[in-house]
Amino acid sequence: MSGKCSALILAVAICGVAVLGQDGGVKSWRKGGSSSHGHMIMNQTVVEDQPGSAPVDLHRGNDSQSALDSFMNKTKTAIPTGVCFEEVPTISLVKPNNGLIPAGNGSDPSLSRVQVCCKGFERNVHNFRKCDPVCEQPCFNGLCVGPNTCSCYPDFVQNHEGKCVPTCPIGCDNGVCDLDLRQCICKDGYELDKSGKFCLPGCKGGCGVGRCVAVNTCVCDEGYTPDEDGLCVPKCEAGCGAGDCIAPGVCQCRPGYEKSDEGCEPICSNGCFNGICTAPETCSCKPGYAMGSSGNNCEATCDRPCLNGDCSGPNTCTCHRGYVLDETNQFKCLPHCPNGCPNGVCSGPNMCLCNAGYIKDRSLKGSQACVKRV
């Protein structure tokens, strides 16, 4: 037992590990509601919005002061201890005695179970056996009762920014307190929140998926952006073209369009050969092409007709079988005779026309050779 106790003591003396007792409540608070912020001044409450701001004295009656005292006593005792357990190697807590390391009290003899501050808590500066909750933003006009959790004093409420602000009968955030009606009367551009205890900035038409942070000023949630009227609408980084952005990064194409890598593209159900589908069922031909009789097929155009051939591309002729393109005229296809036509001319595909004084050689069937007439 003495080995275990010394392990706990040495955890503080040697390693700086927070070894904490379990008895007693939290004695003081470093963030939000600590005595260093000077919230309580005799029979008054000091309202602070931020460090260094000029305090506003709000006088309390005896009943209100009694409610505050009761709140402080009740709330402080209800704050969690913030103490957790953690297993660490025993050798990190004690020095070996004659080469022997005492058995720890953890799940393994080599481990010791020590008390540390839980996540969201920190060691009390006045009593290292106690842990206090941490609020990253100070709890002015309230107490930090848990990690990033403030509990407002009586007659204070949390506004839309999470700050503790006065409410009737001692004040009214963004308004004035009508003591006769015991309610807030909001300034121009502000409106009562649902609880009726403080005034919120108003945005005409609302903000949609966002927050109204000032009069007619919206801050949109992630993935949304203000439209021309200031309303928060979904945002699609690349745009949707002929579609609608229905959610962050999600496009819905309009009728007659379909999704593509570039967004929404028009559909031409019969295709658009040699053209571009520029609108639903509308084909626009590329340069050098014109719409054919089918209405959905762009056909090549040539400035002049293709003799013995077809116009297969912009000003490009493809010759019929048995013809070859004239080297001097791109729109003319000449007949081709593979073996040539000695003593004649090629008048058709593999067909020779003999010169005057020459006839076809009949000694060979199918021969196109021209021989001298005898």
From TrEMBL:
One Pfam family hit: C_tripleX
Domain EGF-like: from-to ranges: 134-165, 167-200, 202-233, 235-265, 267-299, 301-334, 336-371
Taxonomic lineage from the root: Eukaryota, Metazoa, Ecdysozoa, Arthropoda, Hexapoda
Protein name: Putative conserved secreted protein
Keywords tagged on the record: Signal
Signal peptide: 1-21
Domain of life: Eukaryota
Organism: Culex tarsalis (Encephalitis mosquito)
